Structures are given as structure tokens and as C-alpha cells.
Amino acid sequence: MTQQLNKYSKTLTKDPTQPGAQAMLHGVGLTREDFDKAQVGIVSTGWEGNPCNMHLNDLAKDIKKSVVAEDLVGLIFHTIGVSDGISMGTDGMRFSLPSRDIIADSIEAVCSAQYYDAVITVVGCDKNMPGAMMAMSRLNRPSIMVYGGSISPGILGGRKLDIVSAFEALGEFGAGNITEKEYLDVIENAIPGQGACGGMYTANTMASAIEALGLSLTYNSSIPANSPEKKKESEKIGKVIRHALEKDIKPLDILTKQSFENAISLVTVLGGSTNAVLHLLAIAKTANIDLTIDDFQRISDRTPLLADLKPSGQYVMEDLYNIGGVPGVMKILLKEGYIDGNSQTVSGKTIGETLEHVPDLDQGQKILRSLKDPVKKSGHLQILYGNLATEGAVSKITGKEGEVFKGPARVYNSEKDLNQAIGNKEIQAGDVVVIRYCGPKGGPGMPEMLKPTSAIMGQGLGKKVALITDGRFSGGTHGFVVGHISPEAQVGGLIGLVENGDIIEINAVDNTLNVELSEEEIKKRKANWVAPKIRAENGHLRKYAQLVSSASEGCVTDNF
Fold this sequence. Notes:
single chain, eight-stranded mixed beta sheet, 23 helices, 14 strands, 14% strand
């Protein structure tokens, strides 16, 4: 049994011609007896500079104790994180999506070079999770993801706050609707401590999706970061990874087309982030699963939006946990036929088996609407096509904004230009704001647009203005927005040819995105268009721009 469990690490520990490796491992404290044990790499994305990640190194230590208790060798290593909340609205945001690939590459590199037999990823912020999942899929060794949990809401005057509250307060302050003191009070109280952003933003969206995929424990996505249950959960991880090693349960045994459809169904019901489209496409490609943006539309057509969660609703993940969490939601979806209970999980049980003993959501709860009274009869994630998006675009329409918007274009070639325009109150009701050259190649890095969308909301224009971009939106964004427009401006997409005053129609009923231009006019503009230089002259962003695929393919960098 022992030899079976250490089938990778024995390359170093049991080969008599590897004295250097063995000497180095003795140097870190391993004994001869340890050389007979499986080695588990425990990778933490913990760092002090971000509330989402500030507690993860301690969590990794707790997990290591549980691994060692199962007669395994646990070895902690670290990889990076980029705080979206901190970098938002700056050029630093261009590094956020590319960090997903750095995370995946670094985990793959360490586990492959060190011959770890299994991997446990301890993650917090948005790109940590898909990056970890991509690495786990590439390695295809017994693996489990542990999410550090979401933050508790900040409280100010009885009002619940979060990161989006801070950005929206900027718009309110700029519009003269709140005082400077009120603005600063929101900032000071919005983030009370550790944990990922509390609404159904990208971090909680991806944690929920990965629980549905089967590569984290039941309740992992729901347990708040500061709950004693999070520490208790970490004490179970050693047993689970030991069992996965003994049964040789690997990510590619768990990840199937059906498991991805389960994840998309859950994301749809919960009102999750548009970033789920990018990340699930990228994970699926790594796992060699045939998943396209059209699968999201197909599932959205048949699946209602039920959750009253931020950003468009009023509740946060901690509230959902208190009434039964993501497993309680999944139990309803299983019963109603929206997910398949036969999909496998890292525990060795099926989704159906894991949900069998999960309690129902609390009676009288108000967070999840009934199927008879949904927030929206179909999903909020809509895939749009048209002359502005021949390869597709992703919209986030909850129904509160309406489903059709038509108006004159107001064009900006960068988020910085738009933010300045919002501050100058240039945006008018009825405008279709266009932000371009923000795609995966044009950014480079496809930055998120939470700062401008939140400022527009704060100025009271949320239902009066639409915004389209070849960049991304934060999971915290709400309003009439369309992102991921492909092809992007940098590669000659029509969004790069739009001029101020052109009439644009966004139709989430027919799922179309068009600009009212004749073919003759489009040809004329194309003939005069010259591709701008890539905005990164060197370094990681330059490399990323040269490798990355379109948003409609998940912005992967191994698209060969």
C-alpha cells in the first residue's frame, strides 16, 4: 500500500542513485521512515497584503497537521495572488487575469519538480481558484481545493457594506449625494477583516462552482473565513487526501461535461459572476472537456435565477451559510433535476450521496426564491452575438435593468479615460458607454471595470446607462453591462471601429449586440484602421499578449 501511495515521490526517496535529493530532504527534517510515505504538496496563496488571503498561511498549517496525522508527509509551499479590490481602477488590474496562469504554472512546476504524490491548494481571491484548478487538472494527481472563505459584511449605521459599497460611495460622493465624512466612513468600515469579498462576486462564485464540480468538500464554499467551522474543516482534509491517494481519485476522474454543467447551473441559480464563463472555459480546456460559451447560454435558457444575493440583490454569502449554504441550494437543484447527482467528488462519494444527509434550507428563508417565483425565469448570464460580437460576448442581465437597451455610443479607449469622464459628469442618461482596447491582448490582461460601473451606479445612472467592453467586469458589477466582446478591438474587432454617436442596441431577449452601420461604412472604417502597438513593451504582460486566446475561448495561454 505504501509503495502505491508514494508512486511519484519514490522517484526521489527510494532510488539509491538520488543521494542529493535524499540528503536535501533529510535537511528539511524528513527521516528514513518518512521516505516510505506519500508526499503531499500543500500550496498556499496566502499573503499579508489582501484580506482575501491574509489568513491562508495559518490555514495551510492546520491542514498540514491533518495530513501528518494520516501518516503522510505534508510540505507547504507558496504561490502568488493579486488583489482585484486593491488594484481595481489602476494599471495594476491588468495583472489580475494573467496571475491565473502564473498560479497554475507555479503549482504545476513545484509539484512536478518535487514529485509530490498529491496536492492541496489553499486559496482565497478570484484568480487563485481557477489557477489552482488548472494546475490540479494538468498534474492529475489526487487533489483537493480548500477555499479560505468569505468575509463578514461591514456594518455602518445598521447598513451592511462590502467592497462594492466603497466603489459606489465614490460615485455618490462625486454626485454630491453624500458628504466627505460619509464617504470616508464607508471606506473605513466596508472591509472588517479576513475573507474574500462577501457577495456572489467572482471568489464566491468560483468557490461554489468548484464545490459543484466535486473538487472541494461539501460546505467549503459557504463557511465564512472567520468561522470556527473553517478550522474544523481543515482538520478533515488529511483524511480526504489519504482516501484519494488510496483509491487513486484524481481530478480528471471527477471533471466531466456533466460536472461542468452542474457548476454552470449552480452559478446561474446563484446569480454568479460573468468571470465564471472565462474561468470554467479555461479549466475545461485544461481538463480536455468540450465546453463552449454556447453551453452557458443553453443552461441559462433552462435555469432560473433564484438568489437575492449581492451585487444585484441584498444578501451575502455569510447570510446564505446561515440558512443552509450552497449544499442546501444544490439539494433543491438535485431534487428539481437541474443538476446530476451521479457526478463524482473528491470524497469518493457522488454529488447525490453527499447531499443525501444535507439539511434543507431554513423554513421561511428569503435569500433563495422558489421556482414558482424566481428573480428571473431564465439565467442572468446571456451570450450575445451580432456584428459587434461575431465570436460572442457575455452579458449579466438580472431583469432589474430591463432586457433591451438602445442608444448612442460614447467611446473611450481606456478605463482611465472613462473614469475621468465620469468624474467630469460627461456620461448622460441613454448613453451606451464603450470601453475598448481592454481585452486580453489590448489591455493587455483584460482588466475588470468595477470602478466605472460602481461610479455610474453611485451617480444614479445604473438603469439609465449601458456599458459594453472587450474587457471584463468584476463579480461585483451590476447594471446593464456587456463584456468579453470578441473579437476585441486590438485584433480588429468592430468594437474598435465604433465612433461617438453610432447607435448600439443590446438585446438580451434575442441575444444580440449590434451597431447600426452599413456594410459599406464598416468596410470603409476597417480600411482606415491601424492596429495600435501592444501597451506592454516587455515583461509578463507582453508575453501574455502574445500567447493569450480570445475571451470566447477562456483567455488561455496554451491554445496551440
